[in-house]
Design a protein that fits this description.
This protein is α/β, with parallel strands linked by helices. The protein has a single domain (3-291), classed as Rossmann fold. It contains ten helices and eight strands. The protein has helices spanning 3-8, 17-35, 87-91, 110-127, 145-154, 159-162, 190-193, 197-202, 225-239, 267-291; strands at residues 40-47, 52-57, 64-70, 96-100, 133-143, 169-175, 215-222, 244-253. Strands 1-2-4-3-5-6-7-8 form an eight-stranded mixed sheet, with helices on both faces. Strand 3 (64-70), helix 3 and strand 4 (96-100) form a beta-alpha-beta unit. Helix 4 crosses helix 5. The relative contact order is 0.15. The model has no long low-confidence stretch (mean pLDDT 96).
């Protein structure tokens, strides 16, 4: 372990134990409240080999655009049940929320997590119409480990084998994530991630070709330095190919910034709405091109 890397990637050390516990409790409490009165379908097995499941919240009379959101937890904790706190405010604006589980470390290796989350995205694109989703308007997102896993659904190169187009994802909101996992080989997190240099490289979206879809890459004002730096690095890498915006959210830490997605007045929430709106324009342009 390298002490400099350990410090740079220790998100937990940026807040007190009391703050951490309060935010973790808020994820579940606010998620339970948000979905209590929402129409939805829960417990759908999206991947037969792993048995992992997803929930769909906020359905309406017509197919709705999708926010496909992946939970964080440093790849070893939390679940889809902790990640639906934005579902009611999105539903009020005609947007469905899909929350996703994946196997956790140390039992599940990171490459398998990537496979599972990509499988979930493919399932939504292939079967979402049957469940009230507009599969031409999928925006992905996540926080921390969830941002990393969401980013792996955006990069090209895997979709053809999964039977979906490279344009299946129309936008991404990546929040407080890590996108080059090679430093974690030398960090305490590798006690449960068991990464090697080779596997870390293979699951790092920052080392892949950039996507062509618009992305908001966000970070909290109070982040560990490694997280802040990797957001800036990914923005530089991706902005040369597509519309990429780097956003720093003031007065927020690595954990509570995620909750801004449940606050309609927040810049983060408005950024998500902008991505959903952009997905409508992208689909209109695609259909016009197909008509020619």
């Amino acid at each position: 372990m390298r002490p400099d890397i350990a410090e740079a990637y220790d998100a937990r050390a940026t807040v007190s134990g009391t703050t951490f516990d309060a935010v973790m409790a808020a994820y579940r409490r606010r998620s339970d409240t948000a979905v209590a009165r929402l129409a939805g379908t829960t417990g759908i097995v999206y991947d037969r080999p792993s048995g992992q499941r997803l929930d769909i919240w906020g359905l309406g009379d017509e197919p709705r655009p999708v926010f496909f959101v992946v939970h964080g937890g440093y790849w070893r904790m939390l679940s889809r049940a902790d990640t639906a706190f934005m579902a009611d405010v999105l539903a009020a604006r005609g947007i469905a929320t899909v929350t996703v589980d994946y196997g956790l470390a140390p039992a599940t290796p990171v490459p398998e997590m990537v496979r599972q989350v990509r499988s979930a995205l493919a399932w939504v694109w292939q079967h979402g119409r049957e469940h009230g989703l507009d599969t031409d308007r999928i925006v992905v997102g996540g926080s921390s480990a969830g941002a990393h896993l969401a980013a792996t659904t955006m990069v090209p190169g895997w979709q053809n084998a999964a039977g979906i187009p490279e344009t299946a994802v129309r936008g991404g909101l990546l929040l407080s994530g890590l996108y080059d996992l090679r430093p974690l080989v030398h960090a305490p997190a590798n006690e449960w991630l068991h990464l090697t240099g080779e596997t870390a490289h293979s699951v790092s979206p920052a080392l892949s070709a950039p996507p062509t879809t618009p992305t908001v890459i966000a970070r909290a004002e109070h982040e560990a330095s490694g997280f802040a730096r990797q957001s800036a690095d990914l923005h530089r890498h991706w902005s040369g190919v597509a519309d990429s915006r780097l956003l720093t959210v003031p007065r927020r830490n690595h954990f509570d910034v995620f909750l801004d997605l449940a606050e309609p007045a927040s810049e983060l929430f408005r950024s998500l709405l902008d991505l959903v709106q952009a997905s409508a324009l992208a689909e209109t342009t695609r259909r016009r091109g197909a008509g020619r």
